[in-house]
């Protein structure tokens, strides 16, 4: 059975085990049934191996005994003594034949006198089995039908081969035992497999019916606990985002954003474990440049995260509308804010132990940089973030993060640290200055082949009006070598701050708010006359 098949079956069983107690009992029963058959398999296999070992050891001992008795008679051509050795072996009723030959293969003594003076010949359809204590063991047939296990050993004198002894042991009993065990094994495995498959099919069909019913209920859901879902904002492959009102019993009301796991993933235990763990991680972050998590959990079979609602646009939407690079002072202001938030998340410490959590975002992109109508800049979606101090729940082989914003070390499958966020932020910086994305890949194979080797042209060649100092900062973010790249987001933040002051830039949140209102604020409808 292949590794892929085993993993698939294990995944199916794990998914089924996560359900109701009745379902778990059924699965446990099926597993116990299969386990019983496996026990039978190993018992039969053990008996067969034990009998086989006894059989082979007896044949080896008999062969070595005959070899010991044949040395001197072969040297002295004492045919009588050789025949005595043959006769002693043939007293065993399971021996088909015995033979002794000289060093040239000429038979000196044989249980069938007609074979004397002929050459020692191999069995028909002879196949090597193994060698035990210098005795070569093989299987084959004689006379076209009799199954034989052949034991052969060299006869030596003073380290020199002077002859060979061979004993042909009847193999029908052994082969019949092997066939019987194999038939029993196949019978038990086939029956248990069919029964288990049938039970699993019935259980899974029932689960699917219940899941479809639950998904329909969740799709029509307009409320999750105290959160009234008012409008769907977006939907991805794993979750959907809603504008919602948080309603409290005393009349308090607040607009929030609610991210709800898609119904078909609600039963995926691995995904839910990761979702909850990473929501808990994101909730630790309290910073003005990071979207705040207000609540998370499970209500009415719906897993969700409630977070602050940022009334504005994400950077990807802004770039899509403008279709050109941003003004230099605005770009510097945005990256200053995000690098400040990143430095906070990278340096966040555990409240109890005081040890750094080393939280890595791992999905820095224009889509996850939000700009409010009031000029706030916030980093969102720590949904695939990771604290290096915690165990990873990511499935093996999965590249996390958007392909166009992967660092070289991520593309090569190396261990990621906080510098992957700096590289991704450098790509965003490059994009908002140049007006176009640097990387575009259709699949992960193309990305991992291209990114480590790709030469990035200096941003100043794409945007000649930017200062040389800004070019140096952007390109240092994009160094393939982590030793040459900014070591911390704070280093990047401080260099940008120095450059901003050096250039005498005064751009602030009020300027950003004005930009947002001028470009994206919806005009008030004309009053009705």
TrEMBL record:
InterPro entries: Kinase-like_dom_sf (IPR011009), Prot_kinase_dom (IPR000719), Sensor-like_sf (IPR029151), Tyr_kinase_AS (IPR008266)
Keyword presence, Kinase: yes
Coiled-coil residue spans: none
Alphabetic keyword roster: ATP-binding, Kinase, Membrane, Nucleotide-binding, Transferase, Transmembrane, Transmembrane helix
Protein kinase domain ranges (all copies): 227-497
Transmembrane segments: 26-44, 183-203
One GO MF term: ATP binding
Name of the protein described by the UniProt record: Protein kinase domain-containing protein
Source taxonomy: Bacteria, Pseudomonadati, Thermodesulfobacteriota, Desulfobacteria, Desulfobacterales
């Amino acid at each position: 059975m292949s590794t892929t098949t085993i993993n698939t079956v294990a995944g199916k069983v794990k998914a089924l085990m996560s359900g109701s107690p009745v379902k778990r009992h059924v699965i446990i029963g099926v597993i116990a049934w299969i386990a019983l058959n496996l026990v039978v398999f190993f018992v039969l296999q053990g008996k067969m191996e034990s009998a086989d070992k006894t059989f082979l050891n007896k044949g080896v001992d008999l062969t070595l005994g005959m070899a010991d008795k044949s040395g001197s008679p072969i040297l002295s051509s004492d045919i009588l003594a050789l025949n005595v050795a043959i006769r002693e072996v043939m007293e065993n009723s399971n021996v088909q034949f015995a033979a002794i030959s000289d060093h040239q293969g000429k038979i000196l003594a044989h249980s069938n006198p007609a074979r004397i003076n002929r050459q020692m010949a191999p069995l028909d359809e002879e196949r090597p089995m193994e060698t035990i204590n210098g005795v070569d063991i093989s299987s084959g047939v004689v006379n076209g039908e009799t199954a034989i296990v052949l034991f052969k050993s060299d006869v030596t004198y003073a380290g020199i081969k002077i002859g060979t002894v061979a004993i042909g042991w009847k193999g029908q009993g052994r082969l019949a035992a092997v066939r019987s065990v194999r038939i029993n094994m196949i019978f038990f495995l086939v029956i248990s497999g069919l029964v288990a498959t049938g039970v699993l099919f019935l259980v899974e069909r029932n689960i699917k019916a219940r899941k479809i019913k639950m998904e329909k209920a969740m799709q029509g859901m307009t409320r999750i606990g105290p959160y009234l879902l008012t409008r769907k904002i977006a939907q991805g492959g794993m979750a959907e985002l809603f504008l919602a009102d948080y309603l409290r019993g005393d009349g308090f009301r607040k607009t929030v954003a609610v991210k709800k796991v898609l119904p078909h993933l609600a039963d995926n235990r691995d995904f839910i474990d990761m979702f909850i763990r990473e929501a808990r991680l994101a909730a630790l972050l309290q910073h003005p440049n990071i979207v705040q998590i207000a609540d998370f959990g499970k209500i009415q079979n719906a897993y969700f995260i409630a977070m602050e609602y940022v009334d504005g646009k994400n950077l990807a939407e802004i770039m899509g509308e403008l279709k050109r690079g941003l003004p230099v002072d605005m770009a510097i202001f945005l990256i200053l804010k995000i690098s400040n938030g990143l430095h906070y998340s990278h340096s966040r410490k555990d409240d109890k132990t005081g040890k750094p959590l080393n939280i890595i975002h791992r999905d820095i992109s224009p889509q996850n940089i939000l700009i409010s109508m009031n000029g706030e800049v916030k980093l969102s979606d720590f949904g695939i973030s990771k604290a290096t101090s915690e165990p990873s729940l990511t499935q093996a082989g999965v590249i996390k993060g958007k392909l166009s914003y992967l660092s070289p070390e991520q593309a090569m499958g190396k261990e990621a640290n906080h510098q992957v966020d700096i590289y991704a932020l450098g790509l965003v910086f490059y994009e908002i200055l140049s007006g176009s994305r640097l990387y575009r890949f259709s699949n992960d194979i193309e990305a991992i082949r291209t990114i480590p080797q790709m030469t990035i042209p200096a941003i100043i060649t794409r945007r000649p009006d930017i200062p040389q100092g800004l070019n140096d900062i952007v390109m240092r973010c994009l160094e393939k070598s982590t030793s040459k790249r900014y070591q911390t987001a704070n280093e990047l933040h401080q260099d940008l701050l120095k450059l901003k002051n050096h250039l005498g830039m005064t751009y602030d949140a009020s300027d950003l708010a004005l930009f947002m209102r001028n470009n994206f604020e919806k005009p008030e409808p004309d009053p009705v006359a």
